[in-house]
Specification:
Elements: E1 2-4, E2 8-14, H1 23-30, H2 36-44, E3 48-50, E4 53-54, E5 66-72, E6 88-91, E7 95-100, H3 117-125, E8 149-155, H4 158-169, E9 174-182, E10 189-193, E11 196-198, E12 206-208, E13 217-225, E14 229-236, H5 243-250, E15 275-283, E16 290-294, H6 299-309
Parallel strand pairs: 8-15
Antiparallel strand pairs: 1-2, 2-5, 3-4, 3-5, 6-7, 7-8, 9-14, 9-15, 10-13, 11-12, 13-14, 15-16
Helix pairs in contact: 1-2
């Protein structure tokens, strides 16, 4: 049963199998207009009731369970369109792939209301952006940190958003980064499997948190060794906040110029981190066609590599 109301929409779902899925996974799979992260938000806000009781994300479904979901009406869009140059790598009716510049924040937030990627996308795409992630993040499927450069894909409709989100969740979307890190890494390659969660003291940071963190896996490969640094390629198997930055710091090879997790020394007067989203591979959300994109290293990244190589 679906009841349309002036301010919200109420859905009642009946579970018809015994798969025992997590509730947030079930909701995302059965309500086309919401993603798993948005389902978690609704659960946290007590907008999901299971058999008459407030639900939790970890609740498992079972046959004949009745689930009621109160979906609030979309907020009026209050983020402004701004004519900001974008380095567009690819675009069609479903997706747009951007080579993000340094210093560009992805979406508006306190202290960064303007000059974000979302402001630029709204100007460029108009109404052609998915609204699954709400007013502040239209079209945004995944994010890059402000100082991280490189490839990012945005969705231009909800169907594309759901398909891309699924690829992120099942790890079929491949994201490869390059970084310059402090110190010389001995192993040619390796896997960092260490759970990440909010830092127990500094809430602005993430950290490896063995007991309460979410599983996080980063694969790394050494591209070049220098006197005091290593050029690495990192492939994300999971996508936790600040994952590469946290993991490289965890193995004592923090990213050059990282203001949160890096060394406090001002090597080469860096005020930006040397982390670049180099390669992105995905299946087109409408056609299923495999697609690959690559973004060249930014000038400051290449210049630092040259200076480090010239150390002798």
């Amino acid at each position: 049963m679906v009841v349309d109301m002036e301010k919200n929409k109420v859905l009642t779902l009946k579970v018809e199998d015994d798969k025992g899925e997590r509730l947030d996974v079930f909701l995302a799979a059965n309500i086309p207009e919401i993603s798993r992260s948005y389902a978690q938000k609704l659960i946290k806000e007590n907008r999901v009731v299971v058999d008459g009781k407030a639900a939790k994300s970890k609740t498992k479904t079972c046959r004949n369970m009745t689930i009621t979901v109160d979906i609030p009406a979309p907020e009026p869009l209050s983020v402004s369109q701004q004519e900001i140059p974008l380095d567009i790598v690819y675009e069609d009716n479903d997706i747009i792939v951007i080579n993000k510049s340094r210093d560009m924040v992805i979406h508006p937030a306190p202290g960064n209301r303007d000059e974000t990627l979302v402001n630029a996308l709204l100007y460029h795409c108009g109404d052609s952006l998915s609204d699954i992630n709400g007013v502040i993040r239209p079209g945004i499927v995944h994010r890059l940190d402000k100082d991280t450069t490189g490839l990012l894909v945005a969705a231009k409709n909800n169907e594309a958003h759901r398909a891309l989100s699924k690829q992120l969740n099942d790890h079929s979307m491949q994201r490869i980064y390059e970084a310059i890190v402090h110190g010389v890494i001995d192993n040619d390659n390796g896997i960092i499997d260490a759970p990440i969660g909010r830092h127990p003291v500094n809430r602005k940071k993430m950290a490896v948190v063995p007991e309460k963190g979410k599983r996080a896996i980063t694969h790394f490969e050494v591209l070049a060794r220098m006197k005091s640094a290593t050029h690495v390629r990192c492939r994300l198997e999971t996508g936790r906040t600040h994952q590469i930055r946290v993991h490289m710091a965890y193995i004592h090879h923090p990213v050059y110029g990282d203001p949160l997790y890096g060394k406090k020394t001002a090597d080469y007067n860096l005020n930006v981190q040397m982390l670049h989203s180099r390669y992105l591979a995905l299946k087109h959300p409408a056609t299923g066609e495999p697609m690959e994109f690559e973004a060249p290293l930014p000038d400051d990244f290449r210049q630092l590599l040259e200076r480090l190589n010239n150390q002798g």
